[in-house]
Amino acid sequence: MMKKILFASSALVAVAAAGSAHASEPIQLSVGGFMNQWVGVADQDVGERKNAFQSNTEIHFTGETTLDNGIQVGAVVELEGETSSDQIDEQYLYINGGFGRLELGKNDSAADSMQLAAPAVGPVGVNDGDLSIWVDSYLIDTSSRAGDQNRATYYTPSIGGFRAGVSFADDSGRNGSFDTDVSGSSIGGYHDDTAGDGDNIASVGLEYSGDFNGVSLGVSAMGENWAEGNLYGGGVNVGIANFTIGGSYSHTEDDYGRNERQSARVSDTDQFDLGVSYAMDAAAVSLTYGYADYGDGSTSGGRTGAGELNQVDLGLSYTLGAGIAWRSSVFWFDNEVEGAEDNDGYGAVTGIALTF
């Protein structure tokens, strides 16, 4: 009799636990994203005139639920509005809790996500921006060039303003791409891994965020390693009243070597940006300078080789309404490639940015 009572009690506990485990609400996806429509003119010494119109649109599907133990589980899928390659930009699930945040899927690395950069409010910018859409030029990027990969990423909880992150993309042979800028020019040392010789990519990031009597401080440090080399860098932002001052730096090591799909050796690359922005009510303005001393293997306007890039961007932004901003850039650049004609020029871009 006692055994039957114990068995019945155990069964009731199991049923109750199962009911509790399924008490959370099912995940329902919501829709968000952004749409940018730009109009621009540019003049350059070398190369044909670039397009006068440019657009960038993404539709984001996100959903989340909270389990009975307080852990949050969610999903993110980002759909490209127009593309000649992958229709899906990023897709991953995440798990949030007191232990931190775990992400699994195709997403940016911790090094990329945690790296700070100089403030810039215009549509062109100088760091991982849109310069190469409007002119033939190398593109400065002080963060990771590995791009979206199928990876696992873990972020610690924020403790005293500090937070760390680590990412790992495995040697799957189907993970990665030879990174390109938006004009299709190859920049960096990653190669197409879809042929079956994928490389492990390990990334780390560290950030600090704090406020001291009205002065905000953000600091980042990051590093990344893959089969042919590694990079490291950092950034800082300081906010004082309506001003934000900041910059970032990265260095790429020269131990890439050659592989069967990479005809040129990529040597040392140093890049940095510096800038200041001022925001008041609905308006903001920024002035940013970027510099790159890049190695062989990078492509600038169809001209492969080592070179230097200097770029200045004056950005303007005005909020017209909730999720609607009018943004403009006036830019200048000077791109020197060894063994090729110096290309310099200037341009202006304006348009509307929607967030929904």
TrEMBL record:
Keyword Lipoprotein among record annotations: no
InterPro entries referenced in this protein's UniProt entry, alphabetically: Gram_neg_porin_domain (IPR033900), Porin_dom_sf (IPR023614)
Signal peptide from the UniProt entry: 1-23
Domain spans labelled Porin: 11-328
UniProt key word DNA-binding: no
Alphabetized UniProt keyword annotations: Signal
Protein name: Porin
